[in-house]
Specification:
Layout lengths: L10 H14 L1 H11 L5 H7 L4 H29 L1 H21 L3 H29 L2 H33 L4 H5 L6 H7 L2 H10 L7 H6 L3 H8 L5 H22 L15 H16 L2 H6 L1 H7 L4 H29 L1 H24 L2 E2 L3 H7 L5 H5 L9 H12 L1 H15 E2 L2 H16 L2 H12 L5 H29 L2 H22 L8 H8 L3
Antiparallel strand pairs: 1-2
Helix pairs in contact: 1-6, 1-7, 2-6, 2-7, 4-5, 4-6, 4-25, 5-6, 5-9, 5-10, 6-7, 6-24, 6-25, 7-9, 7-17, 7-24, 12-13, 14-24, 14-25, 14-26, 16-17, 17-18, 17-23, 18-23, 18-24, 18-26, 19-22, 21-22
């Protein structure tokens, strides 16, 4: 709720608001878990279902495809039936997805249930920060909206951690492990654990009130006032209601229509805010963050450290993400949105170019001992022709291996052979990935959703956030889908270099065009940013 910046917060009311924001932000935890748990699953399902690289990418990105569709409708739907009701439906979808994915008998079934979960992801990703922004006072809005990103990060870290625990248990000889089939199909337990937080979220939402701003939009003023007075005194509630009603009335008169349509987003008055929204939405995903989160073990395996070590380092990625997201929450209302974006995106540029350099400096040389450790059976004359030859990059090694062993053989065992032959500085790769994750987590990760909740006018906020969220999710889908293919065809060095170039372009845009929004009411920002 939009209290004046110079007003002292009422501590009891603010504590209640923070509790509600944390409950709503549990949708972010589910989103982070649902999206990242697949990082531990891909290796198992690639073998079990005999997937191609594009199919493997599809198993990851299918969730994002339906979340993109959900973003198209969740904002307008929340304007019609309410923010809280949409989040409740999302919790139900998460639970269905978790149970169905864990029990999936084949690849198609797995993808279908992942896609069902994607509808929950899209809805909660859009509506949770919107709801939190609508109940937050300006001096706390940045931190409170960032709770959603914090919970996304906790969900990601939780997925990495539980994946690792299940992997460790799968190697145990305990009778209960065998009885539960954790030893043979650990990936099902990785996916099924999401059921628990989904049920918790569903019941937690019963403690959450309806958005006062949404009630005012619907003309339900008495209900809105009752909710607002739970967090502030009656005088403050009346003043805030008057500001919100005036903003809505002015917007309605200006547009001569009560219902906002997509065409309204492209009117000259909104050109600045919608352009900023689109660019920031693209930038957050085009730099490859979900490639790192969803394929972290795969990336670390490419640095030659082994499967178990790759899962441990994936946990380290999650911890880094969590720590720097907490720092972003502490700093966002102190230093502002733009400084965090500038520093963080600059860090992303440096980290991506460092990763590109690290992989480009790698060499491929397969020894007899390294091949023996893979457990692969191959024609000795053919494989021995590869021994102790040095290849400058993965493409050169692949061409030589395909020539000696055949394309079909390399398609089946290429990843294992490449990892066995790879000689790289794993510390440099770890520094690059952790630097990238830290830079993302303290900047465009949480700040994007804060900006989205602040930039757009009351009347079109739901539609506008759905629109830019749709673009964000669509770019995420493409990045996830093609990432395994990029690693195979372009190589890691070129892939990360491309991400770095996009980050550099985004840095220049932020420096020039993104405004500072901290400490201002949503109505004040509308007057400042929306051109008459």
């Amino acid at each position: 709720m939009a209290a004046p910046v110079n007003e002292q917060p009422i501590s009891t009311g603010n504590y209640r608001l923070m509790l509600i924001a944390l409950i709503v932000a549990l949708g972010g935890l589910l989103m982070g878990f649902d999206a990242s748990v697949i990082s531990g699953v891909v290796g198992f399902i690639e073998t079990k279902f005999e997937l191609t690289k594009i199919q493997l990418g599809w198993s990851v990105s299918s969730l994002t495809l339906t979340s993109t569709l959900a973003m198209m409708v969740s904002g307008p739907l929340s304007n019609r039936i309410g923010r809280k009701k949409v989040l409740t439906y999302a919790a139900i979808l998460y639970a269905i997805s978790a149970i169905g994915s864990a029990l999936a008998p084949d690849f198609v079934s797995l993808v279908i249930f992942r896609m069902i979960g994607g509808f929950g992801v899209g809805a909660s990703l859009i509506i949770a920060p919107m709801y939190i922004a609508e109940i937050s006072p300006p001096e706390m809005r940045g931190r409170m909206v960032s709770f959603n990103q914090l919970n996304i990060v906790i969900g990601i870290s939780l997925a990495f951690f539980t994946n690792y625990l299940i992997l460790r248990y799968s190697q145990s000889d305990a009778a209960w492990v065998k009885k539960a089939h954790i030893d043979t199909e650990p990936w099902r337990w990785m996916l099924g654990l999401e059921t628990l937080p989904a049920v918790l979220y569903f019941f937690g939402l019963f403690l959450v009130p309806k958005s006062p701003r949404w009630l005012i939009l619907k003309g339900r003023f008495e209900e809105a006032k009752k909710i607002m007075t739970r967090f502030s005194n009656a005088e403050t509630a009346d003043r805030e209601m008057a500001e919100i009603r005036q903003s809505i009335e002015e917007e309605s008169k200006k547009e001569h229509s009560k219902q906002a349509g997509v065409a309204d987003l492209f009117k000259p008055a909104l050109r600045l805010v919608i352009t900023i929204g689109i660019v920031v939405a693209v930038l957050q995903q085009i730099t490859g963050i979900n490639s790192v989160f969803f394929y972290a073990p795969m990336i670390f395996e490419q640095s030659g450290i082994g499967t178990d070590a790759s899962f441990v380092q994936a946990i380290l990625v999650g911890i880094t993400n969590l720590v720097f997201t907490v720092l972003a929450i502490l700093f966002i209302d102190r230093f502002g949105r733009k400084p965090l974006l500038i520093v963080g995106v600059a860090g992303i540029v440096v980290s991506m170019f460092l990763l590109s350099y690290g992989f480009r400096a790698a060499e491929y040389s397969l020894s007899e001992a390294a091949f023996a450790k893979t457990g692969i059976t191959a024609d000795q004359a053919s494989i021995s022709a590869l021994y102790d030859h040095s290849y400058p990059d993965e493409q050169a090694f692949r061409e030589a291996a395909e020539q000696q062993l055949g394309t079909a053989f390399y398609s089946e065992h290429g990843s294992t052979l490449s990892n066995a032959a790879l000689h790289i500085n794993p510390v440099l790769i770890l520094i690059g990935i952790l630097g990238f994750v830290a830079s993302f987590a303290i900047s465009i990760g949480p700040v994007m959703w804060v900006l989205f909740s602040e930039l757009f006018p009351n009347r079109i906020r739901g539609l506008a956030i759905s629109f830019v969220g749709l673009i964000n999710s669509a770019v995420s889908f493409i990045v996830q889908l093609v990432f395994p293919w990029e690693l195979e065809k372009l190589g890691s060095a070129t892939t990360f270099f491309i991400y770095g170039v996009f980050a550099l372009l985004g840095f220049l845009f932020i420096w020039r065009y993104v405004p500072e929004t901290k400490g201002k009411s949503l109505e004040a920002l509308e007057k400042e940013l929306v051109r008459s």
